[in-house]
From TrEMBL:
Organism: Oncorhynchus tshawytscha
Keyword Lipoprotein: no
TM ranges: 31-58, 70-91, 111-128, 148-170, 214-236, 248-269, 289-310
Gene Ontology MF term list: complement receptor activity; icosanoid receptor activity
UniProt keyword annotation of Glycoprotein present: yes
UniProt keyword list: Cell membrane, Chemotaxis, Disulfide bond, G-protein coupled receptor, Glycoprotein, Membrane, Phosphoprotein, Receptor, Transducer, Transmembrane, Transmembrane helix
A GO cellular component annotation in the UniProt record: plasma membrane
Highest taxon listed in the record's lineage: Eukaryota
Bilayer disposition of the protein: Multi-pass membrane protein
Subcellular compartments: Cell membrane
G-protein coupled receptors family 1 profile domain segment(s): 50-308
Annotated protein name in UniProt: G-protein coupled receptors family 1 profile domain-containing protein
Amino acid sequence: MTTSSSPVYCPLIQAMVNVSMPSNSSARVGALSLVTVCLHGLVSAFSILENLLILGVVGFRIRRTVISVWILNLAASDLLSTASLPFFTIFLARGGTWTLGTTFCKLHSSVFFLNMFVSAFLLAAISLDRCLVVLKPVWIQNRRNVRLVGRVCGVIWALAILCTLPYYLFRDTIRRHDGRIMCYYNYAQYLNVREFDLRELCEARQDALAFSKLLLAFILPLVVIVGSYVFVNIGITRRGRRRRSFRFVRLVVAVVVSFVVCWAPYHIFSVLEAVAQYQPSLRGLVAHGLPPAASLSFLNSVLNPILYVFSCPDLCGKIRQSLGAVLESVLAEDLGEFSRQRSTQHSSIDAS
């Protein structure tokens, strides 16, 4: 009678629910968690500041061009991702238990996947854009403008939100037997399935999400990116053009390499997690490897602004000017306040 009211989970999730933290390893885990929390806190604070700086400089200090629109959208996606890092830090600081509720669990995870899809789609679009600039310069000159690129970015954000929707729907808070709460997938939702259908349903749903994000957010964008730059190099070689646009190409290549290095481990472990449904021996490897791989993927949003600065000297100069203007303004306000205080003191002395 009571079993009917208890939550039903997929077999893989049920195995995770049954796992408890060993009491004899609490001290070692506590020391490791402290280091991890400190690192995540520092990285989140630094990444939020640098992405805000890039958005401020590109959005308000640089003339609006096609290139600046691409960078602006990449920086906006990275800022969303890094803004979610402090909440992941809170999760780690509280011993790996989620205490912010189910709705925020869904939103927090959705931001992670939204950034994954937006970054992949934008990098593919930027690569196609550079390919057309080299291969079809006259056609692109007549049709390519800031408004068109802005619309393309709007479509990319809309597609990314659509791709993120299943991850929002299936995310849930799940209580472990040791009292900790997971913010994880719960594929046994939204359908009243018979018990003997549960395993098949869970396997189908997890396989669909794991392989679809591998295909849409990694393999297809990577094929488009590599193919575009192969054609770009062929076109430049045939025309014997000088390295006029290599500065931005160098930036895009650096961003793409960062994207591959940071996201490839996450996709590999996501696929292994799906395979672990059929091969339970892989569950231990996935449990130890997937969290660091997810943390590494956050690093992509930290590296991108650094790559913008080092690959674009003009952007670096604008940032220095902006910081100099801010510092000058602050100093001017402080000096003005100091001068007013001194004049007030002198006036009171003279009056006495």
